């Protein structure tokens, strides 16, 4: 279980206790020193991202994957509490193979910085990626939302609002719930890799 | 609880079922009339079907015929039916009031396997005949059929002359289907029916973006998805994560035809819908038409523009290019399925 604090904007608010991870959606990344200072003072892991910094390259050779175990260059993937977290621009989630690669590589939380809150979650590419891969998704729009597989949302809509807290928003992730979702509706075990290879659409 | 069927019982059940079905013969259409179909603006209709077991074969044929009549009266070019269309017919030999709702997986497996050939033939003949009679291209839904020793859940599309033009078996089974002895389809995807680029993917195939990538590479522009979701609780979220979601990211027209109601212990819910990439709908919702309730029967329809779709697809491909081939080869290159 992880307690997460989400903050947006130019400056970091004063640290608050009781969180395992702070996710800071900012227009411009601070220096590493600033981030380390804040995180040390807060005794909380801090993950910062800005739209200009969340693009991704595609590198199929594992020995060329910088800063990550995955076939996705650019180091936009982090490890937290023995879980992998990816933070990308929304349009990258619109390419279905990107969240698929992330999920198969073990990413369990996908984050996107949205400029607007989607009026219907299904119109947000991150929500679709979450349902197709049964991971958590954190949409950092003006009104942040947590996307979850429908199976583990009591409303079965796959979207939960975040609670306001001290200038930001809070949410709790129970990663073990993903196991329940994948047991109830096993999507990834149903992949037909040999069929996809035979019909490789990327070769046409 | 119903005991497992012995070979003699299976044979008897199949013959009894066949004799019941044999009493209803499909209409003999007059000479085929050449029909010109639009290249751009296509009127599409999708059926939401009450799949509860029928007491008489005529109940099934009358309701199917009524959907054809309504589609023809409203000048539809394409009519789509849901998954497992012939299963309701099993009610003529296994009425719901009996212990059919307590069937075990093993018995369901035997019953479906034994009754698949006559129910498939019956469904096939009726759908073909009615397509020809009403001059409508028909995505007939899906049915179980034996093919080279495998029981497949197969979707078929007939042209307006009643000729079979697309046959596509379900690639991604649900766990229940696996327990019931259904096998995964394999082999190359069917060629879409031109000029529309019309093809079909069966139910759970729409969970997987890869299915849509495959049919898009074959030239598909309209994907008909027959469904029969065994889920007593309908929610918009669960409904949107299939065909609706896939055609947002692999742009094409998505047509969903849904089976609903109680069927041999299953409680099916779902809505018929015609979906487009959101920017192609006036209100930006991605929903062109959708049935009102998640149970019961209804025919929905809407007009799609294939020219507008082609324009959007071109723009979309430029803005969201596929990852490089070496990346995808690595992604899908792992030996063995997951």
Structure characterization notes:
The complex is a heterodimer of chains A (204) and B (338). Chain A is built from 6 helices and 13 strands. Chain A is of the alpha/beta class. The longest helix of chain A is centred in the first third of the chain and has 11 residues, at 32-42. Chain A is globular, with a radius of gyration of 17 Å. The model of chain A is unreliable at 61-75 (pLDDT under 50). The relative contact order of chain B is 0.15. Chain B starts with 6 loop residues before the first helix and ends in a 7-residue tail after the last helix. Chain B is built from 9 helices and 13 strands. The longest helix of chain B has 30 residues, at 105-134. Chain B is an alpha/beta fold and 338 residues long. Helices cover 33% and strands 24% of the residues of chain B. In chain B, helix 1 runs parallel beside helix 3 and helix 2 packs across helix 3. At the A-B interface, helix 3, helix 4 and helix 6 of A face helix 5, helix 6, helix 7 and helix 9 of B.
Fill in the keyword field for this structure.
A: alpha/beta; Nitrilase/N-carbamoyl-D-aminoacid amidohydrolase; five-stranded mixed sheet; 6 helices; 27% strand; B: 338 residues; alpha/beta; 13-stranded mixed sheet; 9 helices
CATH architecture of chain A: 4-Layer Sandwich
- Summarize the biggest pleated sheet of chain B: 13 strands, mixed
Helix/strand class of chain A: alpha/beta
Helix content bin of chain A: 10-25%
- Computed over alpha carbons, the radius of gyration of chain A is 17 Å
Tell me how many strands of chain A there are.
Answer: 13
Our measurement of the CA-to-CA distance between the termini of chain B, rounded to an integer number of angstroms, reads: 35 Å
- The helix tally of chain B amounts to 9
Radius of gyration over C-alpha positions of chain B, nearest whole angstrom:
20 Å
Helix content class of chain B: 25-40%
Shape field of chain B: globular
Sheet with the most strands, sense and barrel status of chain A: 6 strands, mixed
Q: Helix count of chain A?
A: 6
Strand content of chain B: 15-25%
**Largest interface: chains, residues each:** A-B, 47 and 54 residues
